[in-house]
Design a protein that fits this description.
The protein is mainly beta. Helices cover about 15% and strands about 45% of the residues. It is built from six helices and 29 strands. One of its GO terms (molecular function) is protein transmembrane transporter activity.
């Protein structure tokens, strides 16, 4: 009997070796993609995005023009800077534009005073809070007005030792990697914002700064108030974002260590596992074949001035029980993904911030039937990626956008994709040397109607391919992370496409909101040719928020419905979902 069972199993394995794309009703690549989406959500929870703006207390800039002609006055042909550092070269062109100055204008004492005040405000608006711009006594008979600048410089950066544990303060102050400026540099508010972001990036840290006079004339000291009651954080998560086959309910436990080396660095380790509601079959011999998922992830990141360096690694394993006539099979797979990245803030002012980033990555996956690897489905790829990210805080709300390019190479022993072996010389459906462009655009707008507070937030994500793509690199839509309203058991995928999410939120209590979501997406590409319209639309209504209960409990519960889909696309008529997270 065991011989017959083994023969049947090996026959099934042989079938999938010959026809590897018929591997499972629940495509394994979908399982890998689902895990990557959950991994992205984990990173968002444990590595919160921090955006510090310190210019909120500065006076608003009013329209400024020079007053009426005066007497006595002197004709001035040009305005220049008198031996000022290059950092202040912006003052004169901005001053001319904002004041309405034209060559030959006659300037008296009031106009000169107005120009000096405006020049000082221009310097402050650029973040030079402690620098002085003034008009020194001079002879205007030459027709040239010279502005003088006395740069305000940084004296020292010191941490208040009476705040919290002295040993912890000593560790954070031992390394000068948090602020991009050093003693003697011209003091600029933008550098202080960057330093404060580097300190506040750790959720267990409370940090603030103030400026005090330095020991030397023209210098100012930065005094940092820094507290970290506990460096350890725990995060527990439960959701129903999994598959009915491998585990509808998923859970994870993460341990984060903030500032382990005194560098404002962050380390976390997480473990995930299914929580049940999965397929399981028992054959005639009483042998049970089960399903399930498990995974882990590791992260470390450290800031150095305007730079942020990070390392990530995660692994994933799944088992899917496949019911047969005489025997059941364990269709399973595993994947690993690693990357190292560096990003730098290349521009920031009171409203805008631009970041450039680069990454080296490697990933591999293998699939099995029982303990027999399906070698033609083995993948090992590596390459690099580059991105640019921009964020803007405007008077009516905020905007953000990013553009990224991902390239596969032959580094780190990469294997050619199975799709590249094509004896007929047809167009290959995929390659390990992929070329992919990603773009994201989002907005958030708060508003008020009567006594009620509302907000709108929306995001559009798009993908373009400049090479054939394997299924793992396709854009897949039809889940809570893309187009909501669908159960996520199936998806539409293609080499290129886009989706948009829109939320109208009612903030009925502080930290609690009800929301209505409307999403749409479509995919296209070589793999979708000849198929019905590949587009989805869906809607959700839900509640989300956070409540302090010892730690912080956050929740998101929703009901969704599909609004538009291809006729062949199978999904529940109504979907229900939840995501619970507790951190302490």
């Amino acid at each position: 009997m065991h011989l017959i069972t083994n023969v049947i199993k090996y026959a099934a394995v042989f079938t999938f070796l010959v026809y590897p794309h018929a591997a499972s009703a629940n495509d394994a690549d979908t399982e890998f993609n689902r895990n990557q989406q959950r991994q992205q959500q984990l990173d968002n929870r444990l590595i919160p995005d921090v955006d510090v703006r310190l210019g909120g207390d500065l006076p608003a800039r009013a329209p400024f023009k020079l007053g009426a002609p005066e007497s006595p006055c002197m004709a001035v042909q040009e305005i220049t800077l008198n031996d000022a550092p290059d950092e202040f070269a912006f003052i004169v062109p901005t001053l001319v534009k904002q004041s309405g100055f034209i060559p030959g204008m006659c300037l008296g004492s009031k106009r000169l005073q107005h120009l000096q005040t405006l020049a000082q405000n221009i310097a402050i608006a650029k973040g030079f809070l402690t620098s002085q711009v003034y008009i020194a006594p001079q002879d205007l008979a030459s027709g040239r007005l010279k502005l003088s600048v006395e740069p305000g410089r940084l004296g020292s950066i010191r941490y208040e030792e009476n705040q919290g544990d002295a040993a912890s303060v000593g560790r954070i102050s031992a390394f000068a990697n948090k602020f991009p400026n050093q003693s003697g540099d011209i003091l600029n508010l933008r550098d202080l914002e960057q330093g404060l972001e580097n300190l506040r990036r750790l959720p267990s840290v409370a940090a603030d700064i103030r400026i005090e006079p330095g020991e030397m004339e023209g210098q100012s000291d930065i005094v940092v108030s820094w507290q970290q009651p506990r460096p350890l954080r725990f995060n527990i998560n439960a959701n129903d974002a999994g598959s009915k086959t491998t585990g509808k309910y998923q859970g994870s436990l993460a341990l984060s260590l903030d500032n382990p080396l005194g560098l404002s660095d962050l380390f976390y380790a997480s473990y995930s596992h299914d929580l049940g509601h999965k397929a399981s079959y028992t054959d005639a011999e009483g042998i049970t074949t089960g399903s399930g998922t498990r995974g882990y992830s590791l992260h470390y990141s450290v800031p150095v001035g305007h730079w942020l360096f990070a390392w990530n690694h995660n692994g994933y394993r799944y088992h899917e029980a496949v019911e047969g006539i005489h025997t059941n099979l364990d269709y399973n797979g595993k994947s690993h993904h690693s990357n190292i990245s560096a990003s730098r803030v290349v521009f920031r002012n009171a409203r805008h911030k631009t970041t450039l980033g680069a990454k080296l990555w490697q990933q591999q996956s293998q699939k099995y039937y029982d303990n027999n690897e399906i070698e033609v489905q083995r993948r090992r790829t590596a390459g690099w990626a580059a991105d640019i990210d921009h964020r803007a805080q405007l008077g009516w709300g905020s905007l953000y956008g990013s553009l990224a390019y991902k390239r596969g190479t032959g580094m780190r022993g990469s294997l050619k994709a199975p799709e590249e072996f094509n004896e007929e010389n047809d167009i290959i459906p995929g390659t390990s040397r992929m070329k992919i462009i990603h773009a994201t655009l989002g907005a958030a707008v708060p508003f008020q109607i009567g006594r009620h507070y509302f907000s709108y937030d929306g995001e559009i994500f798009a993908q373009w391919n400049k090479s054939p793509l394997v299924s793992q690199d396709h854009l897949a839509i039809g889940s809570r992370y893309t187009v909501r309203g669908f159960d996520g058991e199936r998806n539409l995928s293609g080499e290129r496409g886009w989706y948009g999410q829109n939320n109208l939120n009612w903030h009925y209590l502080p930290e609690h909101q009800a929301y209505l979501g409307l999403d749409y997406g479509r995919v296209s590409g070589l793999s979708t040719r000849g198929l019905p319209a590949q587009k989805l639309a869906g809607a959700v209504i839900g509640l989300k928020g956070a409540q302090a209960l010892g730690g912080l409990l956050s929740y998101d519960v929703f009901i969704g419905k599909p609004l538009s889909k291809p006729a062949h696309f199978q999904t529940e008529r109504t979907t229900y979902g939840f995501n619970l997270n507790y951190s302490f």
